[in-house]
Amino acid sequence: MTDTKKPMAEANRISSMLNTVLGADRFPVKVDELALEYSRQCLADSPIDTVRGEDLESFDGLLKANKARSKWLILYNSATPSEGRKRFTIAHEFGHYILHRHQQDLFECGDGDIETGDNNERDIEAEADLFASTLLMPLDDFRRQVDGQPVSFDLLGHCADRYGVSLTAAALRWTEIAPRRAVLVASRDDHMLWAKSNKAALKSGAYFATRKNTIELPHDALAHSYNAFDMCDNRTGRAQSWFAREPASMPVTEMTRVAGQYDYTLTLLLLPEAEWQGARHDDEEPEEDTYDRFIRNGQYPVR
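That's the Zn protease sequence above. Prediction below.
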């Protein structure tokens, strides 16, 4: 029986080691080299022996042990055009190796193979993603990049470049430390693909749930095709346009940016602190936003 490892703690421990050896200005993480060297140095009885790209059709990444469990292999989809996605996939599989290698011999991750499992108390795919995000974008360094600066997609683009990840991944990371309520929405053809609310927004009821319905963007949203000739990508409007239960006086700042490599538009919504908490009832469905649903269906390209 092995001790349960915590994704953030394990990633932060490795990050501290990298800071000591390489210094603080060491990004982006060379995660393929890290996986090989760390496992050889620290887990020599069962190291990662190979990390390589192959043209994989049914999944994004794979972690596999040999029959003797004396060596491990990481594969990632070399056909993926995004280097950030490849880097995240390797980090995700490295996360499985660090956290879950005693549980099974094979991990195939991506598309329909990634399932979060509603009823699992501990979901290994979510844990591997958390490990990867923490390893590639440590919060202490991330805070240093953004503290004291107004958020913008240009600022988040700087973070994406520094860490070698997608703009989407950098934006999601920022929402975790946002000083106020924040919601990130990805949309295509005037409908939401997914949305992710930070904890403050979720607790106040500012989230989008799509268990049963497809949600269209508000007609006055910057990302809606009705506003195709509106040249601005940042404005302040009424929060009720997005969240009907917000007070009439509540403003929302809306920023948009096309994520070209994924063929969707990102919208970042920023709201002041909530003036009230939404009513909660015991018979309500558990809160779930569209990001969680998108992840569950294996469609979200966070890499």
